[in-house]
Design goal:
Layout lengths: L1 E3 L2 E5 L5 E5 L11 H11 L5 H21 L3 E5 L2 E5 L4 E5 L3 E8 L3 E8 L4 E3 L4 E2 L14 H14 L6
Antiparallel strand pairs: 1-2, 2-3, 3-4, 4-5, 5-6, 7-8, 8-9, 8-10
Helix pairs in contact: 1-2
């Protein structure tokens, strides 16, 4: 894992670049194992079969959600840009990617991936409102500018930071 501006980046096992900001995802990949271990223990417990099955299914669902929480952010690969949320991943092909824009309220901001057709997909995490400001200290660029610079450098085929 490397830091690219205010983002963290790393290659996944398929070669895609994962991009996220600190605080968006569970950093420990061990967390999803705990509900699975509890489900296994529940299945050998002395309670009735219907309760075993219901409990095991619920704990397996918790493990799935915990696993998704470990992957929140963006994926960038040769096919396009993906926004990985808790429930689903939205993939946008390069031909349709217009870029990222910022949305903010007085308390927080969010990067939004915009398509050429106008579809908008919000990032799974937020930033402090002041981080969204493109006019930072001493020429510091805003979050959206950093993200667009990273995305378009990948699109151009520039050497990736990881």
């Amino acid at each position: 894992m490397l830091t690219y501006g205010r983002f963290r980046v790393r290659r996944d096992k398929h070669g895609a670049l994962e991009v996220w900001s600190r605080g968006w995802r569970l950093e420990s990949r061990v967390v999803p194992v705990a509900p699975l271990a509890m489900a296994a223990a529940l299945l050998v417990s002395p309670i009735g079969l219907p309760m075993k099955v219901i409990g095991a299914v619920m704990l397996a669902g918790c493990a799935w959600v915990a696993r998704r929480l470990c992957h929140l952010g963006f994926t960038i690969d040769e096919d396009g840009v993906g926004v990985v949320g808790v429930l689903r991943t939205v993939k946008m092909p390069w031909d349709d990617v217009a870029g990222f824009v910022g949305e903010r309220n007085p308390h927080e901001g969010r990067a939004v991936l915009v398509s050429n057709s106008g579809e908008r997909v919000a990032a799974p995490g937020t930033f402090a409102a002041e981080e969204m400001d493109p006019f930072g200290d001493e020429g510091e660029e805003g979050i959206v500018d950093e993200l667009n610079r990273l995305v378009w450098s990948v699109r151009r085929g520039d050497p990736l930071p990881v």
